[in-house]
Amino acid sequence: MTPAPSRPARRFPRLTSLVVGGALALTGVVALPAPAQAAAGPSAYVANFHGDTVSVVDTSTKTVTDTITVGNSPVGVAIAPAKERAYVTNFDEATVSVINTGTDAVTATVPVGSNPLNVAVTPSGSRAYVANSGGTTVSVIDTATNTVTATIPVGESPNGVAITPSGASAYVTNNNDNSVSVLDTATNTVSATIPVGAAPAGVAINPSGTSAYVTNNNGNSVSVLDTATNTVTDTVPVGGTPNSVTFTPSGSRAYVADRGSGDVKVIDTATRTVTATVPVGDGPVRVEADPSGAAVYAANLADDTISVMDPGTNTVTDTIDGFTGPYGMAFTAAPPAAQADLAVNLTAKPYLSILVPYLTYTLTAHNTGPATATSATLTAKLPPGARATNLSPGCTTSGTTVTCTYAPIPANASTPKTFRVPLSLLTLGPVKATAERTASTPTDPTPTNDKASVTCTAVSIILVTCP
C-alpha cells in the first residue's frame, strides 16, 4: 500500500486504511449558474487537502483568484445547480463546508459521518450525498436546510459517489468490499449491489445515464456498468492505479486519472479501449472535464499543480500552480455568452427645393444591451434607380444598397448614420426604403427588431411627405 499523503504535524489515522495504492476516490460534478465574480469561463473550486482551503480558479485565465478557508483536510467538492452553493467534504473533521459561490464565503458547516470523502449533488440541487469512507454509510444533506436528513448503510469504506442525470439513482463505490451500492434516491435505500474489481474508487455516470464507469484502484482496470440492469458489461484494462474518472460532455470519451503512473488514460467509450495516454503532473488523483468540454483538468496531489488538457489533441496545454495538495474539484457553469440587442431605426426627412431636392435618411443602431456592441453592420435598400450621396463616415454605397458599419455602441446608447437620396422629376408615388442589421458582435438575441422601413409619398418633386 502506498503511504497516504502527509504534511507536518498532522496525522491521518483513517486515511492510510482507506486508501488503496495511496489514492482517494472523488467523482461527481454538477454545474450551476456562474457566480457574480466569474470571468469569461467557468470557475473551478479545488479542495486543497494539505491546506484546509478551497482555491477558486478562473478557467479563462488559468489563475487562482480566491482562497477560502474550510475544515480540516478538504477532499471532495460538488456544486449545487441553481443554488450558488459548493459542498466540500472535510476528511479529518467529519463535516461538510457549504460555500456561497456568489460571495466565496462559508455559510454553513454540516456534521456528517466518519472521514467524508466524496460528495455529489442531485440535478435538482435539493440533496447532497456524502460518502463516509471511515465507516459504512452515506449521509444525505437537505440543501435547503443544510442538515442531514438520512443516513444510508452501504458497503465498507464508501469512496466515490455519482448521481444519474435523472436524479433517480446514486452509485457508491465501496472500496474495501469490491462492490458498488446503487441507491434509490426516492427512498434513500440500497436497490442493488454490484460486484466490481479490486478496491473500487472513482465513479462517473455518462451524460446519457446509460453507463457508469468505476475505477478499480487495485485492479488496474475500469468496470463498465449498465445502469438499466446494474451489471458489469465490460472491464477496460488501464494499468497503474486508476483513481478517478470523468466523461467529456459528449460522452464519447472517458478520462481516467492514474496516480501510480502519473498520467491520464483516455478511453474511447464506443470501443471501450484506451486510445491515448497523457503525461501530467506528479500523483494525479482527480480528473474532471469543464462544462463546455473545452478542457480536462487533472489534480496532481504530489506537486501541487493542476494540468489542463486539450481533449482535441490530448496534450497538456497549461499547468496551474498555487495549490497545497489539490484533490477534488468542481466547476460552475460558464457565464452566459455576452449579448447585445440592436434595434434598427430608419427615418427620412425631405429637403425640397427647385434646384436640388433630396431626402435625408437617418439609419440608427440602438443598443438595448445588456453588453456593449463591439461592432455592427446595417444595410439600407433604396428604391430602384435611387442613389445615395453625402454618406456619413463608415457608410458605403453600391447600386441601391447602402452599407454602414458602427464602432462600439455601449448599452442603452444609439449611433445614427445619415445619407441623402436626390429626387428626380420622375419620383412620384410611394418611395420606400428598408434597413436591417446584417452583422453584429456579440450575439443579438432579438431578431424581431433587426429591420425597419420608411415610406415617403411624392406628389411632385417639390411636394414630398414622410412619416
Give a brief outline of the structure.
InterPro entries: Host-pathogen_enzymatic-act, Lactonase_7-beta_prop, N2O_reductase_N, OmcB-like_DUF11, WD40/YVTN_repeat-like_dom_sf, YVTN_b-propeller_repeat. It comes from Streptomyces atriruber. This protein has one helix and 37 strands.
Uncertain regions spanning at least 5 consecutive residues: 1-39
Corresponding CATH superfamily of the largest domain: YVTN repeat-like/Quinoprotein amine dehydrogenase
Q: Please tell me how large the radius of gyration is.
A: 30 Å
CATH topology call of the largest domain: Methylamine Dehydrogenase, Chain H
Instruction: Describe the strand arrangement of the main beta sheet, using strand numbers.
Output: 32-33-31-35-36-37
Taken together, the total number of domains comes to 2
Tell me the total number of β-strands. 37
The assigned structural class equals mainly beta
Strand content: over 45%
Number of helices: 1
Main beta sheet: 6 strands, antiparallel
Intertermini distance:
85 Å
What is the CATH level 1 assignment of the largest domain?
Mainly Beta
Question: How helix-rich are the residues, as a percent range?
Answer: under 10%
The shape is elongated
Mind telling me which CATH architecture of the largest domain this is?
A: 7 Propeller
Would you tell me the overall average pLDDT?
89
